[in-house]
Design brief:
single chain; 365 residues; alpha+beta; Phosphorylase Kinase, domain 1; Aminoglycoside 3'-phosphotransferase, Chain: A, domain 2; 2 domains; 12 helices; 45% helix; globular; binds 2-acetamido-2-deoxy-1-O-phosphono-alpha-D-glucopyranose; binds magnesium ion
């Protein structure tokens, strides 16, 4: 089972890293860092110089060379200076590679970007700033040919495929189907009607360069939360639809409780922050992308919440082989959380449409 890993690395791994990066010092300190669900992340200090060290999850990203290839393609063609924030690239080792394979696993090193990361934010203005940052990322790469990018996780946001994985897990569940699990299975089965809308948009909208993991904790804010210093977790950059990136923001920003909350009854859509997100995307992208693309944004909120819920539930049925968990039912609880949010988003469709109308008028779109 993929349980919470121990909090320190073996000395032998640190020694091997020293050799790989050519560090001639014994002044190396590290501690676990961040709240990502996939890689294990450490804050590493080498002679006073601070880095982020990631133990890379190559079970999840089985094609790491594609990540390097995609980033190289994007960086060659476009000047990252066009963006008002950093896209931190890994530090190369002595062999010039982003990745260092050691006995203990596959590792990557990043420069540490100072600032603040949040699993939730509390103001409309911050929602707008976050949305503008992700929208700027999309905007800068609009002239790129998204099809040149390779899928780093094939079918990552393919809702239809995620439902097939759910069905497969249901054939031989690895956990007992208690009442809460059965309720979730029924809930997500019922919501499969959203797959048709996903397929419709997939057949109509252009593929763009999208980040695909726009949860709020993948932004590093300046200390005053009034600016974005960096956009991180670039492994899932691949061809996608604009509504994916808007949707994951809705899922993690425009909600009254964060993804790990178990207060199901108080999970709702925060319309004030939702408005901030829409305004951020409209301000940057209106006029640059098609009108149907703009109209698809609210669907992204529902679709991304649904796909995460289905993935969490599937992982629970498979007994936690994908996401890191701190206790066995955590993926079920995450699926319950996403279910509550999805219901709230569906219940607020009319209010969200009204919000779109109002903003379009205000911004003369
Ligand atoms: C994972 O690595 P992290 O925590 O930023 C996942 C995303 C999910 C997210 C759910 C590669 O992102 O797709 O949205 O957890 N990343 C991958 O919190 O599966
Ligand atoms: Mg992350």
């Amino acid at each position: 089972m993929n349980t919470e890993p121990k909090t320190t690395m073996n000395e032998s791994v640190l020694d091997a890293l020293k050799a790989a990066y050519g560090w001639e010092t014994d002044q190396i300190k590290h501690r676990r860092f961040g709240s990502g669900h996939i890689h294990k992340t450490y804050l590493l200090t080498v002679d006073g110089q601070v880095y982020i060290l990631q133990e890379f999850n190559d079970k999840v990203f089985s094609l790491p060379e594609r990540i390097s290839g995609n980033l190289a393609y994007l960086m060659e063609q476009f000047d990252p200076g066009q963006l008002p924030f950093a896209l931190p690239m890994p530090v190369t080792n002595r062999e010039g590679s982003f990745f260092t394979r050691l006995d203990g696993g596959l590792f990557r090193l990043f420069p540490f970007v100072s600032g603040i990361t949040r699993d939730a934010i509390d103001q409309r203005g911050q929602a707008k700033i976050a949305a503008e940052a992700f929208a700027r990322f999309i905007q800068v790469f609009l002239p790129a040919d998204a099809r040149q990018l390779k899928d780093t996780i094939p079918h990552f946001h393919d809702l239809e495929k995620r439902y097939r994985q759910f069905d497969t897990a249901l054939l031989h569940p690895k956990v007992s189907l208690d009442r809460a699990t059965k309720e979730m299975i029924d809930f997500y089965r019922e919501k499969s009607e959203l797959v048709d809308k996903y397929l419709y948009y997939r057949s109509q909208l252009p593929l763009r360069v999208t980040h695909n993991d726009t949860k709020i904790n993948n932004l590093i804010f300046a200390e005053n939360l009034e600016r974005v210093n960096a956009l991180i977790d670039l492994d899932t950059i691949m061809a996608g639809f604009v509504f994916f990136d808007f949707g994951d923001l809705v899922r993690t920003v425009a909600c009254t409780r964060d993804e790990s909350s178990m207060e199901w009854d108080s999970i709702d859509v925060d319309m004030v922050k939702y408005e901030g997100l829409l305004e951020g995307f409209y301000t940057v992208l209106a006029g640059e992308i098609g009108s149907e693309e703009l109209e698809s944004l609210p669907f992204g909120g529902e679709m991304m919440t649904l796909i995460m819920g289905v993935r969490f539930l599937t992982d629970h049925l498979n007994r936690n082989v994908y996401y890191q968990v701190q206790y066995p039912e955590q993926n079920l609880h995450r699926a319950q959380n996403q279910a509550a949010l999805l219901d709230a988003l569906i219940g607020k469709r009319a209010a969200i449409n009204a919000l779109e109308e109002k903003l379009r008028n205000e911004l003369s779109l």
